[in-house]
Design goal:
This protein is α+β, with helices and mostly antiparallel strands. It contains 26 helices and 21 strands. Strands 1, 2, 3, 4, 5 and 6 form a 6-stranded mixed sheet that branches. It has a 5-stranded mixed sheet with strand order 8-7-11-9-10, with helices on one face. A 5-stranded antiparallel sheet has the order 12-19-20-18-21, covered by helices on one side. Helix 4 crosses helix 10.
């Protein structure tokens, strides 16, 4: 898709006198005849055959056994179909698909991707049909060309960009190679953007910055990303770009400092019998600019980094050990992306060491395969589909979908939520927000369900996890347990957390507007917004006034009998302490208080230690013969209608009398019910607590443990 086109219908502006019209029918192209003529006869386009030769040479460097005949046929078709079309710069249009293909060939793309890259504009801008492409080059090439073609013309208007990139994402989701072609396409257009009007250059550069560069990062294609960053930097920040360019020009000898460290490191590794290649990697313009902002005045070692390439994963750690042994490491700079790869497949060890003169050198350690993936990302993975024996490709399913094993988790999420966002502006805003997140975390389901892990952007909360796991059913989420502990929906998750989402049984439950404050993912925000729009009464409901505690009092039958062993057989009142409400057969301790009465505590109660520190002597106490007891239980739950009724019903079903009940005002959707209960038999307490926990929305029931002020 050329950004240099001036024709509003076609990006291949046909400015020549013989430019074909899209409205005038052309005879069917005989591909076989053209192929024979091109391969056997003389060429008429001067240097263009040399261009396809460069593509073939770059392709063979990565794939020595590649069949180049299909590339030649694709070039012949592309050259013939684009003949007479010119770019705004005046170059023949065929130079654009050739440049796109060469970019991908240098990254190591496989033959099918290169074939589709050569043909990526033919179906859209010429009379070549998709059926002809399929007949000549197979279903796989046709699928990729169709995926690129489905991205309609970009006129860079406010509404056109969002819809264009929505369709791009849909096409990419079915095959990430489609996006690889689009990224190479944009890179070549950015390289030749100088012929555009300045305002159009800025508009295109902003879209590249906001969408294409983050997508390149997420697909791991660092080689494309860094060049796009520099091109955008030059257009959007020309003054900073010129200062950075001058800074680099004034430090042409900056590489000498890194070269000296590289030589020392190579010597150390040879002596340790570790086969490794040590290279000096200059920073690109944007990287130098960022380091300059971070560190101020730059030293020679700041203009590049060292790259150490080895054969095996274990060698990476061996290099790290030697490096940290023989040089002074900067521990804060160490990161292990081999044990924990980044979301875009990137793997490397990152560290930094200080030279004797104080210069700090950043070092990247990786295998040759890791380096290939680090530079080319998904492009380096080749064809993600295994063609059937004797076949020429993988036919898509009837609905156009097919499972791509290289599809990153973030891309799957984007495909899910974009279907729920008909409004282009909402989609655009959500897309940019999601792409702005450059880190990802993985959390695990506590219930062991499939899939066992959930990928989320860094900073995601339990709200995001709920919608990622349950979809629309998350509307009824009441809370969560994170790593076994109760957590509110606003809790921010960390990488590796175990999450159990608690859902209400009431299907009428829905999210509150406050959930939007904690939702980071587009899927969660869009689902919550849609529900609130469908239930305006919930969205507009005023905040409830703080409610005072509600108390319910029932009959006050006596509790279990307690006896205290006092000197002289004193007759005194013995009663259980309210802070811990002991019941048979709890181990108990008593203390005499004002008036001579004795309060009885559970042995583990905090008040026991307090009384001992105050010098109070414990009194021996024991239970009487009766099994009847009184106990205070605290039920922690998520607020919902009928919760109090359901809890009291569960208590009544256990043949337990409610002495008193207190319901505290809700806080962050959680409520606390405190019940003082009279049990006919203390042995039934565990069963009662289980029954209360089984009530929907209740996540914990415990014995009261209120701090008590020691009695005088």
């Amino acid at each position: 898709m050329s950004a240099e086109a001036t024709n509003p219908v076609s990006d291949a502006e046909a400015t020549g006198p013989d430019a074909p019209s899209r409205r005038r029918a052309r005879p069917r192209i005989d591909l076989r005849r053209l192929g024979r003529a091109a391969l056997l006869g003389p060429t008429t386009r001067g240097r263009l055959p040399d261009a396809i030769g460069h593509v073939a040479e770059a392709h063979r460097a990565h794939h020595p056994d590649a069949d180049l005949a299909v590339l030649r046929r694709a070039y012949v078709l592309a050259e013939f179909s684009h003949r007479g079309q010119f770019r705004k710069s005046g170059e023949p249009y065929i130079t654009h698909p050739l440049a796109v293909t060469l970019i991908l060939a240098e990254l190591g793309a496989e033959t099918t991707t290169l074939t589709a890259a050569l043909l990526h504009d033919t179906v859209e801008d010429t009379e070549v049909t998709l059926d002809q492409v399929r007949e000549e080059f197979g279903a796989e090439v046709a699928y990729l060309v169709d995926g690129v073609t489905k991205v309609e013309k970009i006129d860079y208007g406010a509404a056109a960009e969002p819809e264009t990139f929505r369709k791009m994402l849909v096409a990419t989701g079915n095959d990430v190679r489609v996006m690889s072609i689009k990224l190479a396409d944009r890179l070549h257009n950015m390289r030749t953007l100088g012929v555009m009007r300045p305002e159009k250059q800025v508009r295109i550069a902003k879209v590249t910055r906001d969408v294409l560069i983050p997508l390149a990062e997420r697909l791991g294609v660092q080689a494309l990303k860094t060049e796009l960053e520099d091109l955008v930097f030059a257009i959007l920040h020309p003054e900073e770009y010129e200062r950075t360019r001058a800074l680099i020009a004034d430090n042409t000898g900056a590489g000498d400092a890194l070269a000296a460290i590289a030589e020392s490191l190579s010597t150390v590794l040879r002596e340790a019998d570790i086969a490794a290649e040590v290279l000096v990697r200059p920073r690109h313009f944007v990287s130098v600019h960022r380091v300059h902002l971070k560190r101020g005045d730059l030293r020679g070692s700041d203009f590049g980094r060292l790259l150490v390439l080895v054969a095996e994963d274990a060698d990476c750690y061996a290099v790290l050990g030697e490096l940290h042994t023989c040089f002074t490491p900067v521990i804060s700079e160490f990161k292990d992306f081999i044990a924990a790869p980044k979301f875009n497949l990137y793997q490397s060890l990152h560290t930094a060491v200080a030279a004797p003169d104080g210069a700090v050198a950043e070092v990247l350690i990786r295998t040759h395969q890791m380096h290939k993936v680090a530079e080319a990302g998904v492009v380096a993975l080749g064809n993600p589909y295994t063609p059937p024996v004797g076949g020429d490709g993988v036919e898509p399913a009837e609905d156009g979908e097919r499972a791509d094993p290289t599809r990153p988790g973030w891309l799957s999420r984007l495909l899910d939520w974009q279907q729920s966002t008909p409004d282009p502006d909402t989609f655009w805003t959500s897309l940019r927000a999601d792409l702005a997140e450059d880190q990802e975390i993985t959390v695990f389901r506590a219930d062991g369900g499939a899939p066992g892990q959930i990928s989320l952007p860094a900073g995601a909360s339990c709200v995001d996890a709920a919608y990622a796991q349950h979809g629309a059913a998350a509307h009824g989420c009441l809370g969560a347990r994170v790593n076994g502990r109760l957590a509110t929906l606003s809790t921010v998750l960390n990488d590796g957390d175990t999450v159990q989402l608690l859902l209400a049984q009431d299907t009428a439950s829905g999210p509150s507007p406050e959930w939007l404050e904690h939702a980071r993912t587009p899927a969660a925000r869009i689902a919550i917004t849609a529900w609130l729009q469908a239930h305006p009464e919930a969205a507009k409901a005023p905040e409830a006034d703080p409610r005072p505690p509600v108390s319910v009092t029932a009959d006050r039958r006596s509790g279990a009998k307690l006896h205290a062993d006092l000197p002289g057989a004193q007759a005194t009142a013995v009663r259980p302490a309210g802070c811990c409400t002991p019941v048979p057969p709890d181990e108990i301790t008593g203390f005499q208080v004002r008036g001579g009465s004795v309060t009885v505590h559970r042995a583990g109660c905090a008040s026991v230690d307090t009384m001992r520190r105050l010098g109070r002597a414990p009194v021996t106490v024991h239970w009487g013969d009766t099994a009847e007891c009184r106990v205070t239980l605290v039920a922690e739950a998520f607020g919902r209608p009928r919760l109090l009724a359901d809890l009291t019903e569960a208590i009544a079903a256990a043949d337990v009398a409610v002495v008193s009940a207190t319901v505290e005002p809700p806080s962050e959707q959680r409520v606390r019910h405190t019940y003082t209960l009279q049990l006919p038999d203390a042995a039934g307490l565990p069963a009662l607590m289980r029954a209360m926990r089984d009530v929907a929305g209740v996540y914990d029931v415990s014995r009261a443990q209120h701090p008590a002020t020691p009695e005088a």
